[in-house]
Amino acid sequence: MTKEKLLAERRGCKLALIGAMILxxxxxxxxxxxxxxxxxxxxxxxxxxxxxxQVEEVCLDVLSxxxxxxxxxxxxxxxxxxxLDEVLPLLVGHSDEMPRDPWGNPYELAPMADxxxxxxxxxxxxxxxxxxxxxxxxxxxxxAERRRAGGTR
Length: 153
Description:
The chain is mainly alpha-helical. Helices cover 53% and strands 5% of the residues. The radius of gyration is 30 Å and the shape is elongated. 18% of the residues are buried.
């Protein structure tokens, strides 16, 4: 192969490389648009399932704590606990710390309503404040029982 042919071949390779780079850069907005359109289709269902799993965890925790509150009342002649710390020894596989909801907030005893024999256990949801909607909604033991029985998810 002659020197001229080698130079011509290199020039051709350089031009092909430059063309590929220009095409790649030109395709970035299209690729970004397609990825941007597909991301919600992938991420939203995953986030929804994760949120449902967090609510399921809260329901299980609230029901376990409610059972411990009721057991405490039975063991103390109908006297309900003043705080959840009093029921910690009654939890199966308990540690030295009270469990927290998936958002890191402590579970608490809700004020007793008319007709309640023992206080209800509740999570204040993802925002840690009373009220809320969606993941921020409060879940009390009655709601947890309803959800576990298949009422709402």
